[in-house]
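[User]
Protein folding is very new to me. Any chance you could explain this protein sequence and its structure tokens? I have pasted everything here:
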Amino acid sequence: VLLAIGRDACTRNIGLERIGVKINEKNGKVPVNDEEQTNVPYVYAIGDILEGKLELTPVAIQAGKLLARRLYGGSSTKCDYINVPTTVFTPLEYGSCGLPEEKAIEEYGKQNLEVYHSLFWPLEWTVAGRDNNTCYGKIICNKRDNNRVIGFHVVGPNAGEVTQGFAAAIKCGLTKELLDETIGIHPTCAEVFTTMDITKSSGQDITQRGC
């Protein structure tokens, strides 16, 4: 049984009400703008207490660095809370970067998206005879922006390692065309993202029969 219940935001007993900083009374989270600024202009918040943001240590570290540079170093770079790579380290790992399909549809409209997906069979599973249609890869592309990849999802061995590499490409504006032009390393799990040609809308079979 996996309980992913998150963390409590202990913001109710530190005197925020005395200086007028608003919090979400339901969960204690602090609403901020895209520069981590609260409703009180001289008070900023970062990390797990932010409302609607990811509860991940590397995100808090990055946001803190960028905030310090904006306040004291003349920088204007803001933290990117969308293209954050993350992994669930279950026995069969799940990795993602960018938007989930549901959120992408909500933001861009289903008609403006193309979703490519595939099941795949890791090489190390072939000798052991494990089910060849358990691992899964999916990318979500924005058709109105040169098929730019706005969502990346993978379920399989070492998903964290795979996701970290693709996250850098997504930050650089990865498109479906660039993925298609990339020569895959055979036989790796990550290779599946260089050979995807079946769209979810087509309804075609995505089961695999070989590595």
About this structure: The chain is about 25% helix and 15% strand. Residues 57-72 form the longest helix (16 residues). The helical segments are 16-19, 57-72, 101-108, 123-128, 159-171, 176-181. Strands lie at 86-88, 94-98, 113-120, 135-142, 148-155.
